[in-house]
From TrEMBL:
This is UPF0147 protein SCAL_000135. Belongs to the UPF0147 family. InterPro entries: Ta0600-like_sf, UPF0147.
Length: 98
């Protein structure tokens, strides 16, 4: 990923990374094998990423703690936990890119 400060390329890469996270959250939200409360929280996380007016790195930093809470839920299926860890890793890269 060519993250460069002050250029349009950085914004484009951040948006692309954010879109990948949102696509993964959509997979969790639409997976009927995932408990409803976890899908609901994933939907809230997606809403925070999409609708916030904060800069992308700030949105990413905010959502990381929500994802941590989600992975600590004892009812989360292992495959979903792995997806959430992947999202958190991508968002950590975004939050420190600025």
């Amino acid at each position: 990923m060519g993250l460069k400060k002050g250029g349009g390329e950085m914004t484009s890469d951040l948006n692309e990374d954010l879109n990948k996270c949102i696509e993964t959250l959509d997979r969790v939200i639409n997976d009927n094998s995932v408990p409803r409360n976890i899908r609901r929280l994933a939907d809230q996380i997606k809403t925070n990423l999409v609708e916030s007016t904060d800069p992308i790195p700030e949105r990413a930093a905010f959502v990381i703690s929500m994802l941590d809470d989600l992975t600590n839920d004892p009812n989360i299926p292992f495959h979903t936990r792995t997806l959430i860890w992947g999202i958190a890793s991508q968002l950590e890269a975004i939050s420190v890119s600025e």
